[in-house]
Specification:
Strand content: 25-35%
Order of helices and strands: EHEEEH
Shape: elongated
Number of helices: 2
Largest sheet: 2 strands, parallel
Strand order of the largest sheet: 1-2
Oligomer: single chain
Radius of gyration: 15 Å
Number of strands: 4
Helix content: 25-40%
Structural class: alpha+beta
């Protein structure tokens, strides 16, 4: 029974985006590992940007400085 936990920053990930993540990851687990999708569990946890750090700084501070995770 696969269990996948996805951590994202709490910055407006929509219900539809979460649905797509759950479906997409389930599909990958099914295709790559040949696991039953009915036994595959996906958990999405949203983390406040004050509680997530990168390169020694809080994401909230990096966002204020203009750093984003958007694809360029």
């Amino acid at each position: 029974m696969p269990f996948v936990k996805i951590l994202v920053t709490r910055e407006g990930v929509t219900r539809e985006q979460k649905r797509q993540l759950i479906q997409g990851v389930t599909d990958v687990i099914t295709d790559v590992l040949n696991k039953d999708p009915h036994l595959t569990h996906i958990a999405i946890e949203e983390v406040d940007t004050d509680n997530w750090g990168y390169a020694g700084e809080q994401i909230s501070i990096l966002r204020e400085q203009g750093l984003t995770a958007d694809k360029k």
